[in-house]
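Q: Structure tokens for this one, please.
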Amino acid sequence: MKHLSLFSLLVTFLLVSCAPRPASEPVTLNIFAAASLSESFDEIGKLFESSYPGVTVAFNFANSQQLAQQIIEGAPVDVFASANARQMDEVIEAGWIEEGSQQIFATNSLVVVLPQDNPAVLDELGDLTRPGLKLVFAAQEVPVGQYSLDFLDKASANPAFGLTYRDDVLKNVVSYEDNVKAVLTKVVLGEADAGIVYASDISGANTASVIRLEIPEALNVIAAYPIAPVIESKSPDLAQAFIELVTSPEGQAILEKYHFTPAVR
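A: Here is the predicted structure, written as tokens:
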């Protein structure tokens, strides 16, 4: 009987040790990212989830200024990807991101978009000063809004446009939107004669919905996108893994597919 008891104990031990282990608790990775990253990061997020079973990537897409404020106010977040350095610096200065942990992962440029039927018959950048136009810009506190103003400043300093170009264009702005996607939507719906968005916004279905009016390189503004883990992340290893995917050749190829310029080669 003693031998039988030992044998039974051994069998029980083997059965328990070989039994499937319960799955680890599901994890949600919170990514705060500039609105212009929505399509590309959605694809990168799906790729990340396929490599990390049990992990759900939850995105909060908005203008970078709003996201920075939410982080500073204590919103739960693991990774911040901004459309400019200014908002990233604000979060660093507030103590939520470690100085030096941020890195540039992509760049972007501006383009003027027109509704597909181009009701105002706009052919060149100089036409944006025509009285009576309905233009839509992003608000100045939004990165693309400030970049748009920077473009107007450059154009006004160019003899081909003249000193009053900036003011004449701004007279035609009928609304300032909270993010770049709202600008694009108003143009697509025909609620504006033109707007300024990122080149990356003209992808997929949007390609056939608008006409592009290119801004020459000399007048354009290059937007640099930094990304960094948040100090209070509950999943720091996963946060770093997500950033590594974004900066990997695979992640950079996805960004390039959506008309960003990769920053990591």
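A few notes: The first strand starts at residue 27 and ends at 34. The chain has a mean pLDDT of 91.
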